Fold this sequence. Notes:
Shape: elongated
Radius of gyration: 14 Å
Number of helices: 2
Amino acid sequence: MRIAAILVTIAFNMPLNDALAIAKPDSTEGANLWATYLTNWMLRNHVRTILSLGQQHY
Length: 58
């Protein structure tokens, strides 16, 4: 499960962060990206949390 959480981070959260980092905040594109960013990032973050909670501790 730990690997699944890392894969979600690499596949979804990091690209969202990278896109936000290069967006111009005063542009229409930047405003649209920010509007969808929180919803998409939070959804993936909840998935990562659930996957992490499901990991086994040895």
